[in-house]
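Q: Hi! First time asking for a complex rather than a single chain. Here are the components, and I think there are three in total. Is that enough to go on?
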Amino acid sequence: MANSQRVGLTQARAAPIAGGTHRVAVGVRMTALSPWLFLAPALGLLALYLVYPALATLWFALHDRAGQDFVGAANFAWAFHDPGVRRALANNLLWLLVVPATSTALGLLAAALTERLRWGGAARTLILMPVAISFVGAAVVWRFVYDFRPEGAAQTGLLNALVVAFGGTPRAWIALPFWNSFFLMAIVIWVQTGFAMVILAAALRGIGKDTVEAARLDGANGLQIFAWIVVPQIRGTIAVVWIAITLAVLKVFDIVLAMTNGQWNTGVLANLMFDRMFRGGGHLGQGAVIALVLIGLVAPVVFWTLCRARGQGQGR
Amino acid sequence: MRGRAVDLAVALFVLICTLPVVGLFVTSFRDKDQIAASGWWTAFSPVEETRAFRLPDRGEETGVLLGATLTGSVLAGDGRVTGFGITPRAPVAFAPGEVARFSGGGTVTVSADGAFSVSDRSGHAGGRRIYYGARLSPRLTLGNYVTVLGAEGLGRSFLNSAAVAIPSTVIPAVIACFAAYALAWMRFPGRALLVSAVVVLMAVPLQMALIPLLTLYNSAGQAFGFEAKSYVGLWLAHTGFGLPLAIFILRNAMSALPGAMIEAARMDGAGDFVIFSRVVLPLTLPALAGFAVFQFIWTWNDLLVALVFLGPQDDTLVLTGRLLNLLGSHGGDWQLLAAGAFVSIAAPLCVFFALQRYLVRGLLAGVSR
Amino acid sequence: MMTRLTCAVALMAAMSAPAVAENLIFAPDEDARFDWAGYEAFAASHRLEGERLSIFGPWRGQDRALFENVLAYFRAATGVEAVYASSENYEQQIVIDTQAGSPPDIAILPQPGLIRELAARGFLSPLGAETAGWLRENYAAGESWVGLGSATGPDGITALYALPYRSDLKSLVWYVPDNFADAGYVVPETMEDLKSLTERIAAEGASPWCIGLGSGGATGWPATDWVEEMVLRTQPVEVYDRWVTNALRFDDPAIVAAIEDFGWFARDHAFVDGGATAVATTDFRDSAAGLFAVPPKCYLMHQASFIASFFPEGVELGRDADFFYFPPYADTDLGRPVLGSGTLATITRDGRAARAFIDWLKTPIAHELWMAQTGFLTGFKGANPGAYANETLRRQGEILLNATTFRFDGSDLMPGWIGTGAFWTGMIDYVGGKPAAEVARAIQAEWDNGE
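A: Yes, that's all I need. Here is the structure of the assembled complex.
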């Protein structure tokens, strides 16, 4: 592989950089058809598995519970008035505020710390490990952390055992009003931190040593250097990590299903959609409207990504 | 001194990240009663338990005759009795070796090794319950794994998950390579638009795709005479859902290659297919492997798509589905849950540790631009 | 590449295919408890070699094994290759499958509300007038079962769509006789006695009740049973019937009072093991363990007959654990109401094998084979009560056969988004401390909004 690269680069250096005339010649030689041959399987599958369902959802949103009669905007009106939708929307926004920020911050911290250690590689591997665990598996893992036994009984959940050891009273964490969402978020943060760390660690490695050295000569301490010299240089990467985790959080579904199934006010939109669509006979129209709300939440994120991509220029 | 602080901080980080998994691992070897009695971190120390034991009935059938002294042991395995009693509210009122008197007549004693002896002329004691507290040595067993792999059908589901995840990784990888090349290095009208579209499609929540797609599968299945629920259908569904990310990562990796190199190959008269297969693809392999690790973990860990497109039948149920069923039907059998969960995360963990180098590169390729 | 993969997969599937040898747990013609003559007759008239039948139902774990044992006889009698499947989220799964047009042949569901919904959309096949007549004749309270299984199809015609198979008795309180004897408690005959027993146990420093509402995706349902029991014990049965159809509003004072009556037990920290906080988070399957702990964590548990499947290993029914009827108030004149539930079989894809399976459920032996195992009750009068595996089951079956007022679990009769949604969530909120009136108003609001 390294060999072929060297050959390639040698050739590139040997050949004079192609001028406009050459480009035209290349263009003529290419048949107009061939890009589409390369693209056809992917486009076909994308159209079938993502575009068509999205259109079908739009159609369902305008129809009744069985997807038969046209009902106009009735489902949208329902979503506007339904307290469950409002609650799930609020929860989703809470997740969006907390999880990407915390995961990115912890990932950055882990990246910066492990960078300085001889055993940093091993540590990073272990911190990244939760990425490989399914959400259903994670739910079982975290049951042994959040388990609650009444006061006086031996606590079998790690968190309550710690609380009791320090003289507190055990709590039913996943039923605690408001705070229970944070205990669910902790699981997702647990999974995403490693992801953030790996990417940010690579970005840190790419930073010029001279800027850091210069700051040090100017008398800045470690924290100042990190905040004012290092972080601004990897701003772009931090944004990308943030976006990626945001997309993952919007689709959060399994962990809520397995831990609380949306009870105790922990419901998020993806769960509500699943519930509305399929539980107790289901209501296709209402489920579809929630799906559209979800897509609506994603839109600004996608828009931002697109602007950014355009800004970098993609023509080649 | 400062170095030591960093060491400590990282150690704490690692501890928090791994401790829940360690807990699961330890629990999966423990005995059901001990899981309920104490936390997993005490798994290697003796457990205190209080239990009931029903004395044998007297009578011809059981071979225990009226008036004889009843003997036996309350303990089935290793352990020491720390106290015993004759009422459930005071289960350890007597020290081992003391003699307790039943209200209706007759006496019982339990010694520290678990042996009990009942002397009873009236016949009141037979069939009664006595209670004892015992310090039981920790019981660690492989039995939980034997149970979940055999009787609970996890072994079967392991194969199902493999049959789902491997093709569902290979197919999108292959298809995305071609598409990514076209989007990175071929010029045609509408390319920028397509790239944008791929990004947009990454955001579509797949739960909403289930009913439209399954409906489509069914009508196609009826028209052309094939089963609507099949591995092929599931592979293609995973392919469709995974393609945007695959194209995104691979296109980024491909367009990061030096343009002069591609041009040079073109000048030498190489066609697109040759450039793709001989020049671009070999240089994109790390990113490809990175995506593959990602997709494998995702398809292996998926529950919803498999449940809908393959179904919950015994012979097709995937591992995550089996685990969720365990959560339901054995809500109280934590030892089985733990063993089952560990089996289900074992494969992705192995893949992860073996290929994490590529995973990291794939992640980097996907976001480095 | 693809072909090789396909081959590999096929090979793997072949290697791990389950053994097909039939395993009949009761040797035919030997045990006199079973109606072997009827079995032979059924077998003779239903030979369907080579046909396939997929059955989707709610039974998992041990129940699944018990049902598979019964199914083995159906396979042996008919030659049909019958496959049973279930999943933790079967309510959602069946909607996805029917909606998309890939249903199983037979769906066995515990929710008449869901069945009516599926029938209205044309996903079920009517069972025919002959089956309706049979049900009316041969079931205790047959008319109410016919009403329960009937629905209006897309053509506007009301017909029987579901045949009951396996019932559960809800109005039971479980206890450990040894613990009762030791403490000197007696089985209460009235609700007043039950309440004073509760207060007495609490006064003696113990927890009277184990209540667990946790149930994965269905968390909250055990509380709906409590509320229904209380409605039946404080209001005439007509109120109950109007309530489940929302002819009586959910926030009616009568219903709010019933919720608060449940709260008398569940929201008092001294009355429940672990206090009221533990109620919503304890899994109902785990809560049974509290009865059998030493010293006992609780003395009483209200739960349906099927809970016996979740008792710890080695518990002998009738000796280590027993039940009594959840009693009515003495100062009301409402008789002895019985709350129950059950599973109903529907045809989701018509065919000869599916029809044969419905016929199979009309044979006594299909019931007796499960009665002789455990956890099965039936209102089918043709089944031999002597087939029940033990005295406990037989006594429960008797309660069912002799019920004067029998009502089906109301949450299963309400529309899905209430009975298996808002009602559950509302009860979790209620035990969490929200006032009953507020909870009832919220549920009614969802009912209005969802229409």
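A: Strands of chain B lie at 47-54, 70-73, 80-85, 99-101, 107-110, 115-119, 129-136. Let me know if you'd like any chain examined more closely.
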